[in-house]
Specification:
CATH class: Mainly Beta
Number of helices: 4
Strand order of the largest sheet: 1-8-9-10-11-12-2-3-4-5-6-7
Shape: globular
Number of strands: 12
Helix content: 10-25%
Oligomer: single chain
Structural class: alpha+beta
Length: 218
């Protein structure tokens, strides 16, 4: 995000540091997926509205929260930890980012969003995988690892071999590692972040598994 504009709106020192960390490129390099790219196969279908709990590590930043994908380039995220970020809500779309923390809110145009923002890189990597018909896949002890790239940034997404639900995403050059938990497909006609109090219905776990398996069949 644009550090000068955004940070001026949030006065607490801890929050300032945390927001700055969210907006900066991480410097920690992660090694994963090895040199073996595997074989080119059909990508599990991520081009669906979904919700998941997520834990993110990027450099010294560690955070957790709820993540929702409504469509390509349309996301929402709410932070639960660390304490300095708890309650932060982000709505992301082609128009930019709407950020809210308590009674403070801010609209940031897309042209002012830092390309290295952690959340933006995760969104773009998943959207890239969702748009890909095929990606390189290799089997590991953690699951099936699908590898691709967006704007020159390599990423890998690990899927559970039984449910074909994503369990981990890594963007090594940016030092980003995220873990998905309780992944579920959202149903209904909601195509953008819901207004406060608007519920989005969800499929059952069984239907989620069946959908992912069907769409991921070779």
């Amino acid at each position: 995000m644009n550090g000068g504009i955004f940070i001026s709106k949030f006065k607490r020192a801890g929050t300032i540091a945390a927001i700055a960390a969210l907006s900066a490129s991480a410097v920690l390099a992660l090694s994963s997926c090895g040199a073996n790219k595997g074989i080119l196969v059909k990508t599990p279908d991520l081009n669906v509205p979904f919700e998941a709990e997520m834990k993110i590590q990027a450099g010294e930043l560690e955070m957790s929260g709820n993540l929702k994908r409504y469509g390509t380039g349309i996301w929402a995220m709410s932070a639960e930890s660390p304490e300095t970020l708890a309650g932060l809500e982000i709505a992301y779309s082609d128009d930019g980012v709407k950020a809210k923390l308590g009674e403070l809110s801010l609209d940031i145009p897309m042209e002012n969003i830092n390309d290295g923002a952690v959340f933006a890189q995760i969104f773009k990597a998943v959207d890239s995988a969702a748009a890909a018909g095929e990606l390189y896949c290799s089997d590991t002890e953690d699951g099936k690892v699908f590898s691709g790239s967006f704007a020159g940034e390599a990423y890998s997404i690990t899927f559970d071999p039984q449910t074909f639900a994503p369990v981990k995403i890594e963007i090594p050059a940016a030092g980003i590692c995220g873990e998905f938990e309780n992944f579920r497909i959202m149903t209904g006609e909601q195509t953008e972040p819901a207004e406060s109090g608007t519920a989005v219905s969800e499929t059952s776990t069984e239907q989620t598994v069946r959908t992912m398996q069907t769409d991921s069949a070779e």
